[in-house]
Amino acid sequence: MIRKAVLALSVLAAVLAASGFVLYARNSPPSVPPLSTADVARTTRPYVVKLHAKWCPVCMMTKDVWTQIAATYGSRVNLVVLDFTTDANTEASRVEAARLGLTKMFDEYGGATGMVVVVDGRTREVNSAIKGSRDFAEYRAAIDAALASVK
User: Fold this and answer.
1) Which residue in 2, 57, 88, 141 is a FRET match for 110, CA 20 to 30 A apart?
2) pLDDT in tens, 37-93
3) How far apart are CA 13 and CA 143, in angstroms?
4) Chain-centre distance of CA 51, in angstroms?
5) In a domain, 52, yes or no
6) How far apart are CA 149 and CA 124, in angstroms?
7) Has residue 105 been placed in a domain?
8) Residues 113/84, Cβ–Cβ less than 8 Å
9) Does residue 13 lie within any of the structural domains?
10) Radius of gyration over every alpha carbon of the chain, rounded to an integer in angstroms
11) Pick from 137, 124, 115, 108: nearest CA to 49
12) What HEC string does the chain produce?
């Protein structure tokens, strides 16, 4: 009886480990086109920044909403993905944030994965930060408010 229980627990542990590995492997950071110097100079466009890590379960759950954000707003905002999966990714994200003038935002939110931060394109101040929501309407309201403030 104990052997069967141990075997069942071992099988369950193996299945959970394999599932976790598959989810981890499929949770790559979303790809967005790199912003050129001209894009960065356009101060009328807000930044929509995804803070991502491969190991982040919230990032896994919100991938679809990021796809909607990119499809709906990709031509009207500066989309940025900062990756915190490893120390090397974090350092590369720090460098990219500095290039974009987002150092203050990075210092405040860096490492807080599973979050989307909307940043004013002129002041580089954070307008809103949404953590883990799967409700596209919440992101839409924040991004629309940022866009309305530049008109």
Assistant:
1) 141
2) 888 887 789 999 999 999 999 999 998 999 999 999 999 999 999 999 999 999 999
3) 42
4) 3
5) yes
6) 13
7) yes
8) yes
9) no
10) 19
11) 115
12) CHHHHHHHHHHHHHHHHHHHHHHHHHCCCCCCCCCCHHHHHCCCCCEEEEEECCCCHHHHHCHHHHHHHHHHHCCCCEEEEEECCCHHHHHHHHHHHHHCCCHHHHHHHCCCCCEEEEECCCCCCEEEEEECCCCHHHHHHHHHHHHHCCC
The number of folded domains in the chain is 1
Does 53 reside within a domain? yes
Alpha-carbon dihedral 106, 112, 114, 116, rounded to 10 degrees: -30
Q: Which two tokens stand for residue 27?
A: 């949770």
Burial 36-55 (b: 16+ CB within 10 A, else e): eeeebeeeebbbbbbbbbbe
Q: What is the CATH number of the domain that holds 55?
A: 3.40.30.10
pTM of structure = 0.82
**Phi/psi class of residue 129: alpha, beta or left (left: φ > 0; alpha: ψ in -120 to 50)?**
beta
User: Angle formed by the axes of helices 63-73 and 136-148, to 10°?
Assistant: 30
